[in-house]
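Extended Data, panel c. Modelled sequence:
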Amino acid sequence: MHNLAVDEIRKRSVRSRWRDSADARDIPHFPAGPAELFEQRELRVAIDRAVHSLSERRREVFVLGYFHSLSYVQIAETVGISPATVKNHMAAALADLRAALRPSPTAAPGLTD
Protein backbone atom coordinates (compact mmCIF):
# COMPACT_ATOMS: atom_id res chain seq x y z
CA MET A 1 0.00 0.00 0.00
CA HIS A 2 2.87 2.33 0.82
CA ASN A 3 4.37 1.74 -2.63
CA LEU A 4 1.09 2.65 -4.32
CA ALA A 5 0.99 5.95 -2.43
CA VAL A 6 4.61 6.75 -3.30
CA ASP A 7 3.98 5.90 -6.97
CA GLU A 8 0.93 8.16 -7.06
CA ILE A 9 2.90 11.06 -5.57
CA ARG A 10 5.62 10.55 -8.20
CA LYS A 11 3.08 10.46 -11.03
CA ARG A 12 1.45 13.67 -9.82
CA SER A 13 4.84 15.35 -9.63
CA VAL A 14 5.75 14.34 -13.18
CA ARG A 15 2.37 15.49 -14.51
CA SER A 16 2.72 18.81 -12.72
CA ARG A 17 6.21 19.42 -14.11
CA TRP A 18 5.05 18.50 -17.64
CA ARG A 19 2.04 20.80 -17.35
CA ASP A 20 4.27 23.64 -16.11
CA SER A 21 6.75 23.11 -18.96
CA ALA A 22 3.91 23.00 -21.50
CA ASP A 23 2.55 26.28 -20.10
CA ALA A 24 6.02 27.81 -20.34
CA ARG A 25 6.24 26.85 -24.03
CA ASP A 26 2.80 28.32 -24.71
CA ILE A 27 1.50 25.13 -26.27
CA PRO A 28 -2.09 25.91 -27.24
CA HIS A 29 -4.76 23.67 -25.82
CA PHE A 30 -7.90 23.39 -27.87
CA PRO A 31 -11.06 22.05 -26.29
CA ALA A 32 -12.31 18.80 -27.76
CA GLY A 33 -15.26 19.01 -30.10
CA PRO A 34 -18.37 16.83 -29.85
CA ALA A 35 -17.04 14.25 -32.30
CA GLU A 36 -13.73 13.94 -30.46
CA LEU A 37 -15.50 13.66 -27.09
CA PHE A 38 -17.76 10.93 -28.52
CA GLU A 39 -14.75 9.02 -29.90
CA GLN A 40 -12.92 9.31 -26.57
CA ARG A 41 -15.96 8.03 -24.70
CA GLU A 42 -16.41 5.12 -27.14
CA LEU A 43 -12.73 4.23 -26.85
CA ARG A 44 -12.94 4.22 -23.04
CA VAL A 45 -15.96 1.90 -23.20
CA ALA A 46 -14.17 -0.44 -25.64
CA ILE A 47 -11.06 -0.52 -23.44
CA ASP A 48 -13.14 -1.23 -20.33
CA ARG A 49 -14.90 -4.10 -22.10
CA ALA A 50 -11.63 -5.52 -23.40
CA VAL A 51 -9.97 -5.35 -19.97
CA HIS A 52 -12.98 -6.98 -18.31
CA SER A 53 -12.93 -9.77 -20.90
CA LEU A 54 -9.44 -10.84 -19.77
CA SER A 55 -9.12 -13.82 -17.46
CA GLU A 56 -9.08 -12.85 -13.80
CA ARG A 57 -5.31 -13.33 -13.37
CA ARG A 58 -4.40 -11.51 -16.61
CA ARG A 59 -6.70 -8.65 -15.72
CA GLU A 60 -5.18 -8.40 -12.24
CA VAL A 61 -1.63 -8.36 -13.63
CA PHE A 62 -2.53 -5.83 -16.33
CA VAL A 63 -4.34 -3.46 -13.95
CA LEU A 64 -1.54 -3.54 -11.40
CA GLY A 65 1.06 -2.90 -14.10
CA TYR A 66 -0.66 -0.28 -16.21
CA PHE A 67 -3.10 1.49 -13.91
CA HIS A 68 -1.05 1.27 -10.69
CA SER A 69 2.40 1.41 -12.33
CA LEU A 70 3.79 -1.52 -10.36
CA SER A 71 6.91 -3.30 -11.57
CA TYR A 72 6.82 -6.99 -12.47
CA VAL A 73 8.57 -7.78 -9.17
CA GLN A 74 6.01 -5.76 -7.20
CA ILE A 75 3.14 -7.43 -9.06
CA ALA A 76 4.68 -10.85 -8.41
CA GLU A 77 4.91 -10.12 -4.68
CA THR A 78 1.35 -8.78 -4.57
CA VAL A 79 -0.22 -11.63 -6.52
CA GLY A 80 2.02 -14.43 -5.25
CA ILE A 81 3.53 -15.57 -8.55
CA SER A 82 7.00 -15.32 -10.08
CA PRO A 83 8.12 -12.25 -12.06
CA ALA A 84 8.52 -14.51 -15.12
CA THR A 85 4.87 -15.55 -14.81
CA VAL A 86 3.90 -11.88 -14.48
CA LYS A 87 5.80 -11.17 -17.69
CA ASN A 88 3.98 -14.02 -19.46
CA HIS A 89 0.56 -12.86 -18.20
CA MET A 90 1.31 -9.28 -19.22
CA ALA A 91 2.38 -10.29 -22.73
CA ALA A 92 -0.73 -12.44 -23.12
CA ALA A 93 -2.99 -9.68 -21.75
CA LEU A 94 -1.55 -7.15 -24.19
CA ALA A 95 -1.99 -9.56 -27.09
CA ASP A 96 -5.61 -10.19 -26.05
CA LEU A 97 -6.28 -6.45 -25.74
CA ARG A 98 -4.73 -5.69 -29.12
CA ALA A 99 -6.91 -8.35 -30.72
CA ALA A 100 -10.05 -7.13 -28.93
CA LEU A 101 -9.41 -3.49 -29.86
CA ARG A 102 -8.32 -4.10 -33.46
CA PRO A 103 -10.70 -2.38 -35.89
CA SER A 104 -12.91 -4.69 -37.88
CA PRO A 105 -11.53 -5.13 -41.44
CA THR A 106 -15.08 -4.85 -42.83
CA ALA A 107 -15.88 -1.58 -41.09
CA ALA A 108 -15.54 1.42 -43.35
CA PRO A 109 -14.20 4.57 -41.65
CA GLY A 110 -16.89 7.14 -40.96
CA LEU A 111 -19.81 4.83 -41.73
CA THR A 112 -22.21 3.51 -39.13
CA ASP A 113 -25.09 1.05 -39.27
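The chain has a mean pLDDT of 82. This feature is highlighted in the accompanying rendering.
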